[in-house]
UniProtKB/TrEMBL annotation:
Keyword tRNA-binding: no
Gene Ontology molecular function: any one: acyltransferase activity, transferring groups other than amino-acyl groups
Keywords assigned by UniProt, alphabetized: Acyltransferase, Transferase
Primary enzyme class: transferase
NCBIfam families: PRK10562.1 (NF007853)
Protein name: N-acetyltransferase
Residues covered by the N-acetyltransferase domain: 1-140
Annotated source species: Methanosarcina acetivorans
């Protein structure tokens, strides 16, 4: 079930973000992600429009929007490959006429996922925090 997040979901959302980030981005040190946990909880997530995927009373994934931009889409590693990310992205597409996002170029699995959901690469830029190349993707 997809629902609007509640403040009580924040701890679990940060845990999912951290765990999934470490798995999906082996080219970025785990210490980088760990150093951003408090900012995710106290700044970034509270400022976004968040939706969580709840399964059997447990939050297993979430998507965060800022206008048309998908700021975050993460699924707990143990729950990946079960259609949760797809459901969250499709939910966002029902709320917006257009969505855009950035994904690390070295995260081939994510790029394939977004392409299979109809997003197209529109450019590249360097992430100022990690110095890694990001692909800009859009759907409309």
């Amino acid at each position: 079930m997809i629902r609007t997040y509640m403040e009580t979901d924040l701890e679990e959302m940060v845990r999912i973000w951290y765990d999934a980030s470490v798995v999906a981005h082996p080219f970025v040190s785990a210490s980088f992600w760990a150093s951003h946990k408090s900012a995710m909880k106290e700044k970034y997530l509270p400022l976004a429009e968040n939706y969580v995927f709840e399964q059997e009373g447990e939050v297993v994934g979430f998507i965060s929007l800022a206008g048309e931009r998908v700021c975050a889409l993460f699924v707990a590693p143990k729950a990946q490959g079960k259609g949760i990310g797809k459901a969250l992205l499709e939910h966002a597409k029902t709320l917006r006429d257009r969505v855009s996002l950035r994904v690390y170029r070295d995260n081939k699995k994510a790029i394939h996922f977004y392409e299979s959901r109809g997003l197209k690469a529109t450019g590249e830029e360097v992430d100022e925090h990690t110095s890694c190349l990001q692909v800009l993707m859009e759907w409309e």
